[in-house]
# Entry
Amino acid sequence: MKQAIAGMVRWTGLGALMRFGFARRKATIVVYHDPEPELLREHLAWFAERYNFTTMDAVADAMETGRWNALPPYPLVITFDDGHRANTKLEPLFREFGVRPTIFLCSQIVGTARPYWWKTAAAERIGVETLKLVPDAERRQRLADFGDDPDRDGAERQAMTWDEVHRMGEVADYGGHTRHHPILLRCDDRQAAEEIELCKTELEASVGKPCHHFAFPNGDFGERELAAIRRAGYRTARSIDPGWNGPGSDPLQLKAFPLSDDASVAWLSVQMTGIPAKLRTLKASGRGKPAAAPDVRPIPAA
Ligand SMILES: [Zn+2]
# Structure
């Protein structure tokens, strides 16, 4: 399947076509998590030949003022979700390529040894996709029952320390990614509001700078989450729905291309068309309701 899509995109020149058609005057946002520096260097070199790196702040400025000419042509924002510990190894690359990415942090995981719950042995045994479907309290309980309580420190630190966050602040901006990385749609009203609003105040206190941008964990949100984003005063919120952002886009529902951390440059060029992410969404929405969690909808993407 992967080969077929890659072949089709190469054969038709679709990547270049879409770039020319959509990306010239619209902001493209890409999403990484925890890529290796050697691989990211190849990706950044590929981007540098085709796009101009810009920042989330610059995109927010363009959206708020309508002055899209202030952005360079083919504007691209690089983002990282979660605040993974090894993101610190990317600092020299950001300097080398003149990239100022936005790193979205979980305010109650960064600076602790609490695990990213979907990366635990417990989550692997229960099934990450299963856990995304159950009410949040049940998710936490089931993880704890299997030995990886997401609210307690794990054996090994997975997130950046606050010292590392401060150091990286020279080359990166920070945004909010909730406090504990729940699936917001599975939280009750109070918790959903706290995960969005307190994340902002906690990050501002720890980072020492205003926190203007947000990224939805797993890309999931509804009207309730958008209302909380507005109340909290974020300038933008980023999904993982593939697509470009232009003058008519909603700054609180920014589209972005989720990229595989281990993608070859050939596969990167395919992912930049948005086709793989779109196909995954279609497949997920056709999956139907799981028997274990009858009251919740399947989640489109990882
Ligand atoms: Zn995340």
Summary: The CA atoms of residues 189 and 224 lie 8 Å apart. Residues 2-112+157-278 form a domain with the TIM Barrel fold (CATH 3.20.20.370). The two ends are 18 Å apart (CA to CA).
